[in-house]
UniProtKB/TrEMBL annotation:
Pfam families: Ring_hydroxyl_A (PF00848). This is Aromatic-ring-hydroxylating dioxygenase alpha subunit C-terminal domain-containing protein. It comes from the Bacteria. InterPro entries: Ring_hydroxy_dOase_asu_C_dom. Residues 2-95 form the Aromatic-ring-hydroxylating dioxygenase alpha subunit C-terminal domain. SUPFAM superfamilies: Bet v1-like.
Amino acid sequence: MTPGYFWYLSLHPKGPGQVAITFGGGLSPEFMADPKAGEFVATLKTLLDEVNLEDRGCTEKVYRGLSADKAVPGHLSYLERPIYDFMQYIAERTAGFERSFAQAAE
């Protein structure tokens, strides 16, 4: 997300080794009101196409690594905390999941 636009990718598993990807985004009215909006959109599309292509290559390599015989599942890196937080946010709002932390016995 940025002040002027957002974009997303939604991955939907289709079976082992296959995923369908839906993507899209939105632009704020203020962003589109700029006289150079057409130029900005073209530049933005080029950037997002490049980022998505790079991300696809990285994601495919990670999948191959995770599929290796010697791969062992592990915890997310501390650098991936926003991923965990976002997944918790989605779970709370879509599946009725509620985070609660047990209070330590005194």
